[in-house]
Amino acid sequence: MNSFKGNISFFKGWLNFSSLKVLELLPAKARHNFFEILKLYIKLYIVQAEKQTMMPQAV
Fold first, then answer.
1. pLDDT score of 6
2. The 3-state secondary structure of 1-59, one letter per residue
3. Which of 54, 33, 36 is nearest to 44 (CA)?
4. Residues of the domain holding 9
5. What is the pLDDT of residue 1?
6. Cβ contact 49:3 at 8 Å
7. 59 found inside a domain
8. Over the chain (59 residues), what is each successive 10-residue block's mean pLDDT?
């Protein structure tokens, strides 16, 4: 769970003020598509992280 918090702070840093200003200049549909893709990417990352934690460790 600790690495998940680190990843959230990464996304917050990545979507800093200047990035949000650039997104405001995009047409509404492009902005919507960007956030949909970002949400899917985050979900995929979470699923992959959960799969890694569920894998049995080789002894």
1. 55
2. CHHHHHHHHHHHHHCCHHHHHHHHHCCHHHHHHHHHHHHHHHHHHHHHHHHHHHCCCCC
3. 36
4. 2-54
5. 45
6. yes
7. no
8. 56 63 82 90 89 68
